[in-house]
């Protein structure tokens, strides 16, 4: 056991060079040049910089942090992947394809994995345990007894299950989040075992026949499929583990009115009248979410090349669009209101943006396709972090608390729910058909499933006009504009 501490680990976003052909700088005597703290000066023949890569840090758990950070880099680079390479040409064997690097992950996905590993590391710290504590031999599925349950990974598994089933809403963890956390930990252990950091896996991993055709059922993860897995008589042969969150503890989904939390007109007034909401950057972050339904990470990813002045005569018939990479790493061309495009354009003319642009182009050159000019930058001319827009609400809450005002309970993401609810309510009041409403919402929100969209429609039908002000003048102005643009697109597509 390791002495426990209450100090939590941190995720530090730092520039990391994943370049190839590293070499050390040498002095005239041929000795490596040291810069600071014994670090030797080095460069890469081929640079590949990631400006904000998540790294875990805790002063008392350096070894675990090093292992987890190496794991994150291997996942990012595709050196370790659970999604096996698809076989291409018949000229090459399965062994050849298995030896090639796997699919690379984008930094957003890696950041999500880092958060799950941080949760595990914080639990290890609090418990005084070490992830290196495993048993001497692999387990069978029937061997999860009292001795095994005392292993750290299984105690953590019980901790997650307890948080899913607890009646305490402040401590409750969603079933899907618990699944993602245990999946990240499980993958980390498999990677550690493969590279020899641990002697064995503290859970079973069996190649067995499962009677499914696509996604795994009964709480089993679909991650452990080998490159040669194929459907045989009786079902699909897959790698499965006994370390999973059982479906039996999944709580019933809340009703739509509990899941969806759009701002009321009163709450919007409270939000937008704060001093924080009047400041240029914070104001435009809020407007992007409220008038465009954009998530925090989507706002940070907007490039200036998409921005134009919609009032110019040459842009009169130009439908405003933003290139957005949404959930699931799906790039879309998103239609936005002309009023929102105007706000974004005015931001590019600000003196603050001009200064940031100069710094960015000094570092990365003008018209650099590999480092496109961001719309939103920090004081150093670097793209803002994915969390920056979302942090606006936390700053507003601090202001409200300091001024003795009512503190809002809504989140930044609830502005996106507000956008969808107002759109749906507006279209319902216009007597649009449900199929039209569905199509417009699915397009604007980039929903893959109608199930999600339907929740917004059902919720919009259930609330009163007065509560959400769906027919107020400003709603008609903003959302009616979007409606017209979408209809225009539809007409042009049919022409």
The CATH homologous superfamily name of the largest domain equals Intergrase catalytic core
Low-confidence stretches: 212-233, 253-258
DSSP helical segment count: 19
State the name of the first-level CATH class of the largest domain.
Mainly Alpha
In CATH, the architecture of the largest domain is: Orthogonal Bundle
Offer a few descriptive terms.
hpI Integrase, Chain A; 3-stranded antiparallel beta sheet; two-stranded antiparallel sheet; 44% helix; globular
How does this model look, in words?
It is a single chain. It contains 19 helices and 11 strands. 28% of the residues are buried. Strands 7-9-8 form a 3-stranded antiparallel β-sheet, with no helix packed on it. Strands 1-6 form a two-stranded antiparallel sheet. Strands 2-5 form a two-stranded antiparallel sheet. The protein has 3 domains: 1-127, no CATH class; 131-252, no CATH class; 258-349 and 386-494, Intergrase catalytic core (hpI Integrase, Chain A, Orthogonal Bundle). It has helices spanning 62-77, 94-99, 107-127, 146-149, 152-165, 175-195, 256-259, 265-272, 275-278, 280-292, 296-300, 338-348, 351-364, 392-402, 413-429, 434-445, 450-462, 465-468, 473-494, and strands at residues 10-17, 20-24, 34-36, 39-40, 42-46, 49-57, 205-210, 231-232, 235-241, 321-326, 330-335. A hairpin with a 2-residue loop joins strand 8 and strand 9 (235-241).
Q: What is the topological layout?
A:
Elements: E1 10-17, E2 20-24, E3 34-36, E4 39-40, E5 42-46, E6 49-57, H1 62-77, H2 94-99, H3 107-127, H4 146-149, H5 152-165, H6 175-195, E7 205-210, E8 231-232, E9 235-241, H7 256-259, H8 265-272, H9 275-278, H10 280-292, H11 296-300, E10 321-326, E11 330-335, H12 338-348, H13 351-364, H14 392-402, H15 413-429, H16 434-445, H17 450-462, H18 465-468, H19 473-494
Antiparallel strand pairs: 1-6, 2-5, 3-4, 7-9, 8-9, 10-11
């Amino acid at each position: 056991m390791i002495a426990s501490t209450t100090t939590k680990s941190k995720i530090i976003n730092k520039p990391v060079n994943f370049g190839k052909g590293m070499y050390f700088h040498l002095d005239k005597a041929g000795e490596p040049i040291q810069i600071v703290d014994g670090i030797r000066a080095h460069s890469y023949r081929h640079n590949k910089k990631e400006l904000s890569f998540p790294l875990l840090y805790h002063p008392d758990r350096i070894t675990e942090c090093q292992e987890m950070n190496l794991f994150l880099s291997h996942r990012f680079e595709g050196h370790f992947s659970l999604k096996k390479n698809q076989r291409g040409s018949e000229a090459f064997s399965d062994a050849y394809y298995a030896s090639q690097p796997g699919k690379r992950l984008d930094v957003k996905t890696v950041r999500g994995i880092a958060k799950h590993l941080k949760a595990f590391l914080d639990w290890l710290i609090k418990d005084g345990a070490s992830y290196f504590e495993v048993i001497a031999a692999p387990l069978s599925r029937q061997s999860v007894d009292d001795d095994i349950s005392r292993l750290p990974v299984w105690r953590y598994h019980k901790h997650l299950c307890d948080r899913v089933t607890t009646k305490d809403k402040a401590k409750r963890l969603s079933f899907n989040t618990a699944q993602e956390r245990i999946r990240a930990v499980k993958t980390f252990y498999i990677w550690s075992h493969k590279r020899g950091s641990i002697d064995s896996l503290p859970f079973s991993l069996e190649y067995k026949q499962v009677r499914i055709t696509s996604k795994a059922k009964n709480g089993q993860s679909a991650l452990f499929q080998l490159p040669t897995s194929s459907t045989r008589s009786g079902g699909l042969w897959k790698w499965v583990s006994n370390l999973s969150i059982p479906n039996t503890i999944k709580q019933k989904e809340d009703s739509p009115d509990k899941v969806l939390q759009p701002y009321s007109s009163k709450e919007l007034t409270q939000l937008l009248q704060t001093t924080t909401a009047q400041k240029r950057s914070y104001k435009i972050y809020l407007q992007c979410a409220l008038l465009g339904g954009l998530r925090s990470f989507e706002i940070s990813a907007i490039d200036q090349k998409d921005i134009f002045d919609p009032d110019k005569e040459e842009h009169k018939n130009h439908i405003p669009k933003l290139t957005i990479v949404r959930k699931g790493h799906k790039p879309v061309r998103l239609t936005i209101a002309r009023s929102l495009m105007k706000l974004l354009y005015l931001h590019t003319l600000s003196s603050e943006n001009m200064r940031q642009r100069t710094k960015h182009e000094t570092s990365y050159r003008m018209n650099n396709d590999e480092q496109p000019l961001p719309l939103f930058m920090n004081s150093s001319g670097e793209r803002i972090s994915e969390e920056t827009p979302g942090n606006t609400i936390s700053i507003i809450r601090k202001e409200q608390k300091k001024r003795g005002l009512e503190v809002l309970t809504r989140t930044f993401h609830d502005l996106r729910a507000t956008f969808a609810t107002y759109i749906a309510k507006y279209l319902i009041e216009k007597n649009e058909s449900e199929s039209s409403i569905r199509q417009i919402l699915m397009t604007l929100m980039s929903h893959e499933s109608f199930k999600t969209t339907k929740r917004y429609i059902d919720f919009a039908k259930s609330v009163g006009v007065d509560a959400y002000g769906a027919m107020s003048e400003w709603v008609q102005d903003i959302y009616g504009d979007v409606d017209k643009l979408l209809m225009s697109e539809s007409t042009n597509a049919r022409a």
